[in-house]
Design goal:
The protein has 515 residues and is α+β, with helices and mostly antiparallel strands. The protein contains 16 helices and 17 strands. The protein starts with a helix and ends in a 5-residue tail after the last helix.
């Protein structure tokens, strides 16, 4: 959860506009973020349409296309994917991105699911004309996914659109409830399966109230030296640092050092951005991703040495020249630049270096002893290296060492452990870091995207869930705090899409526990 489908739409649009200019590293980043969004995201479940499932394939070419697509996903073969795209997909979808990108996308569907099996065709009330929604069950987690397709009218009826997203349980199947005694063995069975297939490398923690009820670990932190992960291995947080940044801003607001309604021009001078922009953008806009600012992961970043970016001010050249893509407050647009600028705000209002402030006011009070934005050219103990599947390599894997940041910051890239994330969740829910009244504001959605102040907010059949996910090629982490159920789920992985699908399946199983 906790990135929204809007992220995926924005990323896919970006790739459409820039596909001729995008370098492989940028494509890899966008691809990784897009699939994290697909697997993680859930818009607030306020008005779900009625639906029903029929386990009969459409007749004729649409049914054949669906069977062919599922077979291609399960084959996990670049040549077959290329043949499928060229023969069974129509323009503009076929030429939307280079064929290598289609191959990578469908290949990642296999990595994320372990393969899929057809279950049904879903129809909705009100109807969705020209859209065919195929419900499949994935083999790794036993979860449900929807593949939304559109076909040419008449003729060859080739595929013109394709989207992949989580799906609700089919109406023609009854998944059994679980007792509390059955829940943990069910989760352990899934983790065992993933570990045995080398589909997961990382750590898992589940807590209920003040008690940790499950801890599991598998895989290697360093494949070159075959160093195993352990429960205190530090994994990359990706975007999850945004929670810590937002918490720090909330603390400063609580003691009167700033106001959420302040224009950021009070804290961000014109060496960053002109007043014509900063006078319009408030701290609230930055916290909620409604500022209209973009991302500093731009072409200049990719052309630069990672060694240049250690302190918050080091990122200034990447932000200068940024413009607003809409009037602040009009809508949600995920913004790494916005969260970076909150680091500038914290330094100005808090009178302290960003990293020192976060250590002193969040990590230390919460007891997070294995969490920080480590500088990766130093020998940090028990730190997991990120791995990206590389079937073309004799080693089968590629590290993300030269793709990611040298040091994380306000927008992401730090390191933590599942135990520290649980301590953070306890500190937040216990009112140790911010007051309960302010926490309510942080954990309320402030846009149609289901995003609060540095947290994703999801109203689900399991009640209210808050938290964040983080992803990049070679890493994926997720924290879910189930407010109404009293559970905390933390999963961290040094594999692509390693954490989010597992965390989401655990949450689904929690929802089946008989009360």
């Amino acid at each position: 959860m906790f990135l929204c489908y809007e992220v995926f739409r924005i990323l896919f649009k970006t790739r459409l506009v820039m596909k001729k200019a995008l370098k492989p590293t940028i494509l890899a980043l966008l691809r990784g973020l897009a699939f994290i969004a697909l697997t993680a995201c859930a818009l607030p479940m306020l008005a779900q349409p009625d639906y029903r499932d029929d386990s009969t394939l459409p007749k004729g070419k649409p049914g054949a296309r669906i069977q062919s697509l599922i077979a291609v996903i399960n084959a996990n073969d670049a040549g077959r994917i290329k043949g499928f795209i060229e023969a069974e997909c129509a323009d503009p979808f076929r030429s939307f991105v280079p064929v290598e990108e289609h191959i990578a996308q469908i290949g990642e569907l296999y990595s994320m699911t372990g393969g899929v099996d057809f279950h049904s065709i879903r129809s909705y009330t009100p109807e969705r004309p020209e859209q065919t929604v195929v419900i499949v069950k994935d083999r790794n987690y036993g979860g449900w996914h929807g593949i939304s397709l559109k076909f040419e009218a008449g003729g060859e009826q080739r595929i013109t659109e394709m989207q992949f997203s989580p799906a609700r349980t089919p109406t023609n199947i009854k998944e059994p409830d679980l007792s509390e005694a059955e829940f943990l063995p069910a989760v352990q069975s899934i983790i065992d399966k993933l570990c045995n297939k080398d589909a997961f490398s990382g750590t898992v923690l589940i807590a209920k109230g003040d008690k940790i009820i499950l801890e599991r670990v598998c895989g290697e932190a360093d494949k070159g030296f075959h160093v195993a992960n352990n429960m205190d291995t530090k994994f990359n947080l990706g975007s999850m640092n945004k929670m810590f940044t937002a918490t720090a801003v909330a603390q400063l607001a609580e003691i009167g050092k700033l106001s959420f309604d302040d224009p950021i021009s009070k804290y961000v001078d014109e060496s960053w951005l002109p007043r014509s922009i900063t006078d319009k953008v408030t701290i609230h806009h930055l916290l909620t991703h409604t500022s209209g600012l973009g991302s500093y992961f731009n072409d200049n970043y990719w052309k630069s040495s990672r060694e240049l970016y250690r302190a918050v001010n080091d990122y200034k050249p990447l932000v200068q020249g940024d413009t607003l893509s809409f009037t602040p407050g009009d809508r949600f647009q995920y913004s790494n630049t916005g969260m970076l600028l909150l680091g500038v705000v914290i330094e100005k209002a808090g009178g302290q270096d960003y990293f020192d402030y976060i250590r002193d006011h969040i990590y230390k009070p919460a007891g997070m002893t294995n969490t920080d934005c480590y500088e990766l050219d130093y020998p940090i103990e028990n730190l997991a290296i990120g791995y990206i599947p590389a079937p073309q390599s004799p080693y089968r894997w590629q590290t993300n060492t030269f793709k990611h940041v040298l040091r994380g910051g306000p927008a992401g890239g730090g390191y933590s452990t599942v135990r520290d994330l649980y301590r953070y969740a306890q500190a937040m829910t216990g009112g140790k870091l911010v007051s309960k009244a302010l926490l309510e504001r942080m954990w309320t959605s402030h846009s149609e995207a289901g995003y609060g102040y540095g947290y994703g907010i999801d109203e689900t059949p399991n009640g209210k869930i808050v938290g964040h996910s983080g992803g990049f090629p070679g890493l994926n982490s997720q924290l879910n705090i189930l407010i109404d159920k009293g559970y905390v789920v933390a999963v961290m992985s040094n594999y692509d899409q390693g954490a989010t699908p597992l965390a989401n399946r655990i949450i689904q199983l929690i929802g089946k526990i008989k009360s």
